[in-house]
Every structure is written in structure tokens, then in C-alpha cells.
Design brief:
The chain is mostly helical. It contains four helices and two strands. It has a two-stranded antiparallel ribbon with strand order 1-2. The longest helix is centred in the last third of the chain and has 11 residues. The radius of gyration is 11 Å and the shape is globular.
Length: about 70
Amino acid sequence: MVTYEKLWETLKQKNIRKHNLMEMADISSTTFTKLNKNEIVALTVIVKICKALNCQIEDVVKINNVDML
């Protein structure tokens, strides 16, 4: 299962609101809803987020159960 708990933690640490991240990373509201629901998004979205936040992928996404693959 994919989770974006790390993303929300990173936003808190950097004092950035979710809405601001949408603008910074040029993410649609539909994609942001997927993130909020821990649904899989395209790698390009994760890259945009990492660039906007100047962070690594492990600061954004975590895979909890690799057996799902």
C-alpha cells in the first residue's frame, strides 16, 4: 500500500499548506485528492512535488506492504 504520510509531515516541517503545494508543484485538484486518499499517482507528480519542496522521494511517499505488487 502506498501512503503519503511522509508528504504531510514534510509539509508541516516546512510550514507549507496543502493548497500552496498544489500551486507550487502545479498539481490538479483531482491528483491532490488521490494523494489525500493514498491512491497511486504518476511518478511525474511525485517528481514535481520533490522539486517544489526541494526534497527526496522518501520524504513524500512510503510503500507499506510490498506484497501487493
